[in-house]
Amino acid sequence: MIPKLTKLFLLLLCLQVLLPAQIALADTGPKPTMDFQFKQELNGEQVTITSGTLYECDKSDCSDAAPLQQLGPQGFRCDAESCSALAYGFRDYHKLEIQFSDGKTRRSNIFQTAGFDSKYTVTVRPGDLLVEAQFRPGNFPFTTLIGITCICVLVGLSLVAVVIIFFVRRSKKI
User: Fold this and answer.
1) CB within 8 Å of 66: residues ≥ 6 apart
2) For the chain, domain boundaries
3) Which residues of 128-154 are buried (b: 16+ CB within 10 A; e: fewer)?
């Protein structure tokens, strides 16, 4: 005869084994974002943004650049002084191409994703754009922290269950 507590432990152990090992993704919850604040280094002339494109790349030289697609909430949007992007997931490398009120189209350097909610400063220069990430403690990938916490909680609960079963069985033998 297996005591009830042992049966419960075995049931919990089997349930853990049956749970999927991969993370299930759904179109809910927060999505990664990028915010671009512009500062100008133009001689006396102040320009505004008329439109823009965010290119995403897998290669570090951006030879495979493709515009961020507009899919539901995903997309790249600009107003007169700033731009922002929201995506289901960003690639590793990016490049900006912005059209300004002076009729010029300026392209940026290649830059990397700086975190889940990335913030960038874009310097508008006469011939191009310089994108620099604003690093801050909040750039740590939030989903990684949640995953580590869940694993720690699961291991901790399993250890507590094993200790309880050990002491219950030990007390019955005495």
Assistant:
1) 55, 56, 57
2) 33-139, 141-174
3) ebebebeeeeebeeeeeeeeeeeeeee
105 φ/ψ sector (left φ>0, alpha ψ -120 to 50, else beta): beta
Pick the CATH number of 33-139 from 3.30.310, 1.10.287, 2.60.40, 1.10.760: 2.60.40
State the pLDDT at residue 137: 53
Phi, psi of 127 (to 5 degrees): -115, -10
Token pair recorded at residue 93? 């490398």
Share of the chain above pLDDT 70, in %: 87
CA–CA distance, 76 with 110 (Å, rounded to integer) = 17
How far apart are the C-alpha atoms of 16 and 26, rounded to whole Å? Answer: 21
- Rounded to 10 degrees, the C-alpha dihedral 163/165/170/172 comes to 150
Cα(97)–Cα(107) distance, rounded to whole angstroms? Answer: 4
Residue keyed to tokens 């960038």: 120
pLDDT, position 121: 92
